[in-house]
Design goal:
Helix 2 crosses helix 7. It is globular, with a radius of gyration of 18 Å. It starts with 5 loop residues before the first helix and ends with a helix. The protein has a domain of 136 residues: NADH Oxidase (3-Layer(aba) Sandwich), CATH 3.40.109. The chain has a four-stranded antiparallel β-sheet with strand order 1-2-4-3. The chain is α+β, with helices and mostly antiparallel strands. It has nine helices and four strands.
């Protein structure tokens, strides 16, 4: 058994905070690809990969994003070097013949379409968490949020209706500042049971 690496746990959880201010340094394509190459390896149900990622860096794309943002998130989101919309693909199951060949999972979803959205949303949310962890492991700050109007993002970026916005995050190299106190967290006894 391998012992946990305290430095990695610190980088991903203990010392990590939601990042609100970033250095004005561009996040290049190579780093975006490294994030994706790491996150796609995280486990999901049926080995499905329903998450879809729209990385927003250009001023034009940020202008399209702006109307969907809540007033409290607009300035910091537009100032971040990189934004990512995590969406879910309503036809993710079409890939399951190659992603999960040991079982006809595609056929299952075609016969039971009511399972498409909950399965896609659950697993895309897992994949969003993998994205956040991969970005942190690669030295980036992450500012995840739900303060936006998904329907406006869908209208602006996914008008065909196949992809549907789920989460939004700001990414970049965090501006150096003292570690802010962490907000309260539930204790183990408040949130968990061992049977």
């Amino acid at each position: 058994m391998t012992a946990a690496r305290p430095d990695l746990l610190s980088a991903l959880f203990v010392d990590a905070r939601t990042t609100h201010r970033f250095l004005p340094e561009t996040i290049g394509d190579a780093l975006i690809h490294r994030i994706y190459d790491a996150l796609r390896l995280g486990p999901t149900g049926f080995n499905a990969q329903p998450a879809r990622y729209l990385f927003i860096r250009s001023a034009e794309a940020k202008a399209k994003l702006a109307p969907a943002l809540s007033s409290g998130n607009r300035d910091k989101t537009l100032a971040a070097p990189l934004n990512v919309v995590i969406a879910w693909d309503s036809r993710f199951h079409e890939h399951l013949t190659t992603q999960f060949p040991s079982y006809d999972a595609r056929g299952f979803f075609e016969k039971s379409p009511e399972w498409i959205e909950p399965t896609a949303r659950t697993n895309a949310t897992l994949q969003a968490a993998y994205l956040f962890l991969a970005a942190r492991a690669l030295g980036l700050g992450v500012g995840p949020m739900s303060g936006f109007k998904p329907e406006l993002i869908d209208q602006a970026f996914f008008p065909d209706g196949r992809w549907r916005a789920l989460l939004l995050a700001n990414l970049g190299f965090a501006e150096e500042s003292p570690i802010t106190p962490r907000g309260p967290r539930l204790s183990f006894d408040d949130a968990a049971r061992i049977l």
